[in-house]
Amino acid sequence: MDRTNIMPLSPSEVEVAAKPTRRRYTADYKHRILREADTCTRPGELGALLRREGLYSSNLTVWRKQRERGEIEGLSQKKRGPLPKEKNPLAAKVATLERENRRLRARSERAEGLVELQKKVSEILGIELKHNEEKD
């Protein structure tokens, strides 16, 4: 065998894709393929259709089941991931009330601190304070 006429391959001809991408099929494409598959009556036509489109027979099986369950639900793309949580209509009101509660507690603590400070100052200076009777 004469190797003088063999051309070396370039790196781009030898490289393999790092990660294959997943194929996604639109509802229109699925409809079209199912219609074409339903019209295949002669032996070998369905296999030719699948080879031409690069599909597997399992694709047709799944799509037919989806079509039986309902055209729109089964053949439309489903959004992946967790379902969005519904917002509680009272959540904003609760958050507002909690903020106001924190603000009022801080104000109350400051006021109690001032009262304690006044008591200590009056003890140091020897001033007697009038006590208001609190009703609980």
* Rg for CA atoms: 39 Å
Helical stretch tally: 6
Structural class: mainly alpha
Major sheet, described briefly? none
Which of globular, elongated, flat, extended, rod-shaped describes the shape? elongated
Series of H and E elements: HHHHHH
Number of strands: 0
Helix content class: 55-70%
Overall pLDDT confidence: 82
Could you characterize what this model shows?
By secondary structure, the chain is mostly helical. Among the domains are: 23-75; 89-129. 58% of the residues lie in helices and 0% in strands. The chain contains 6 helices and no strands. It has helices at 11-14, 27-39, 45-53, 57-69, 71-75, 91-125. The relative contact order is 0.06.
List the helices and strands and how they pair.
Layout: H1 11-14, H2 27-39, H3 45-53, H4 57-69, H5 71-75, H6 91-125
How is this structure best summarized?
The protein is mainly alpha-helical and 136 residues long. It has helices at 11-14, 27-39, 45-53, 57-69, 71-75, 91-125.
Entry keywords:
single chain; 136 residues; 58% helix; elongated
